[in-house]
Amino acid sequence: MSTSPATTAASGRPPAARRGRDRRAVVLPARPGAPRVDGPPPAVAVIGGGIAGLAAATALAERKVAVTVYEKRPYLGGRAGGWPTELSDGTPVTMSRGFHAFFRQYYNLRGLLRRTDPGLERLTGLPDYPLLHAGGLRDSFRHVPRTPPLSALGFVVLSPSFRLRDLRAMNPAAALPLLDVRVPEVYERLDATSAQDFLDAVRFPESARHLAFEVFSRSFFADPRELSAAEMALMFHIYFLGSSEGLLFDVPRAPYPAALWHPLADYLTGHGAELRTDTAVEHVAPTADGGHTVATDHDERRYDAVVLALDTAGLRSLAESCGQLGDRSWRERITRLRTAPPFLVSRLWLDEPVAAERPGFLGTSGFGGLDNISVLERWEDEAARWSARTGGSVVELHAYAVPPDAPRDVEQKRLLDQLHRVYPETRTAGVVDARHVWHDDCPLFPVGRYADRPTVRTPHPGLVVAGDLVRTDLPVALMERAATSGFLAANALLERWGVRGQTLWTVPDRARGALLRALVWGARRPDGTRPADRRRQP
Fold first, then answer.
1. Bridge partners, 65 (sequence order)
2. What is the rounded distance in angstroms from the CA atom of residue 265 to the CA atom of residue 287?
3. Pairwise CA distance, residues 306 & 462, whole Å
């Protein structure tokens, strides 16, 4: 039975994440300790109000830590945030950085959202995850079994992208690492290989590659030639062979601020947290007594500990300008972090509707730079009201990993042209209004750079890091990695004060069957060694 926020606060037991349908999900118990801080509360600055920062702030504030959240933008939620704007006809609407899928494997993110929505009633499930290739091939995850290994086998059997002759041509030995993904071992085995080179070695069918694997690599806003194969293999594990939650997902019924972050902001302030939005941190420095000072253009304050929940550029900037953070080696590794190529989100308010049979979300491949199309009135209340009033549609187009030197107006026009190609009925629709959002602040996970990525803990015990760029050694990715790392950062600080932290869940951390593990760990490499031999080496 779910616990309401009020009951949780009264009992002193902050809610834990919960597994979903997967009975093999792994629980990560918090270290034993007191339920909350007893005595004068330590003060913690959380720098960054995205998912990672909000998760850290929530776990700390629930345990009576005095939390201040700094966010440079005027809104919370980070890359899943949103802000108000006004259409040319005077309609107030909410704009965002684009579509996000809240998968059922995101146990810790969903646990964060349960603080204000115990039944997750502000989320709604989409009935399918359809994929379309420009060559005419279509795939769907709606009828794919959810329990591994039937999930992967079912996808192959049901997908028109896999032909018998293609399957015969594949190299099963090269594909074995996908059958038993373990963290961090998967990085030892695959981080030196690009996602594209790995698929080439497997001789994965070209048609299926676009639909089955590029959807993962481009979820990282990265070209498969640059993305570490370890990250792609981890995604394969999380969604196919590691979890029985499946690939269907939920989306918020309302824009992100109303559905997610405004309620969580109220929850945090109700627990005594201070939220300083529209406030950029300019400098962080350790103090002689083991704390840190945090300076903005308004003031400077001292804190007992600091959580750096920043994007790649923000973390790199602080490491470059704050010469006393961590130590020299840590700062040098931070400055080597890279961001993914730019991405474009175009939201169009059309004066005619898209066809009724169009799905709420469609992944695309082979249509120029277009990666997916969302029809927002299919699930979002604000868009549905606009559609009902005007008879039109609110359509969102995504282009991931756009070449950095691409002319923006050209790319925006190209996305519109591809929309007309995929949904021909939109060719006659007029664009009532449009918003185009460009960003290049997503982390890149390039080949061979896993060791450079920061961990939650730093050389200074009062300084921790959170975010989807963080190395957690857990089978998590994207928004779930952000939430999980935020809770881990809070737990690291709470441990110092003898307070019990947040219990977490993840998908299983290895293949689900002994047969699959035996295939992998008994297989010989091209050099004659086995993976198990490598594990026995000192």
1. none
2. 30
3. 6
Pairing of strands 66-71, 43-47: parallel
How many residues comprise the chain? 538
- Whole-number Å distance between alpha carbons of 328 and 21: 45
End-to-end CA distance of the chain: 47
Distance between alpha carbon 465 and the CA centroid of its chain, in Å? 16
Instruction: Say whether pLDDT at 538 is over 90.
Output: no
pLDDT tier at 533, thresholds 50, 70, 90 = very low
Token pair for residue 165?
Answer: 């002759």
**Got the DSSP string for 231-269?**
HHHHHHIIIIIS-SS-S-EEEESS-HIIIIIHHHHHHHH
C-alpha 9: how far from chain center: 28
For residue 173, give both structure tokens. 């030995």
Domain 5-78+254-339+450-506 top-level CATH class: alpha beta
Write the CB contacts of 121 (distance below 8 Å, at least 6 apart in sequence): none
443 DSSP assignment: B
Residue 156's alpha-carbon distances to 161, 212, 276, 416, in angstroms, are 8, 10, 49, 32
For residue 277, give the amino acid letter: T
Dump the DSSP string for 361-407.
EEEEEEETTEEEEEEGGGT-HHHHHHHHHHS-EEEEEEE-S--TTS-
Residue 487 clears pLDDT 70, i.e. is over it: yes
478-496 and 51-62 helices, crossing angle to 10°: 30
Domain parsing of the chain, residue ranges: 5-78+254-339+450-506, 141-247+511-536
Residue 509, class by beta-carbon neighbours within 10 Å (0-12 exposed, 13-18 middle, 19+ buried)? middle
- Alpha-helix residue ranges (DSSP H) falling in 79-191: 107-113, 150-158, 164-169, 172-175, 185-190
DSSP 355: P
Band of pLDDT at residue 469, cut at 50, 70 and 90: very high
If DSSP codes are grouped into helix, strand and coil, which group holds residue 442?
coil
Are 352 and 387 in contact by the 8 Å Cβ rule? The answer is: no
Higher confidence at residue 195 or residue 512? Answer: 195
Q: What pTM was computed for the model?
A: 0.91
Torsion of CA 224, 230, 233, 239, to 10 degrees: -100
Instruction: Convert the pLDDT of each residue in 337-382 to its tens digit.
Output: 999 999 999 999 999 999 999 999 999 988 988 999 999 999 999 9
Token reading at 429: 């629709």
Q: How far apart are CA 4 and CA 11, in angstroms?
A: 11
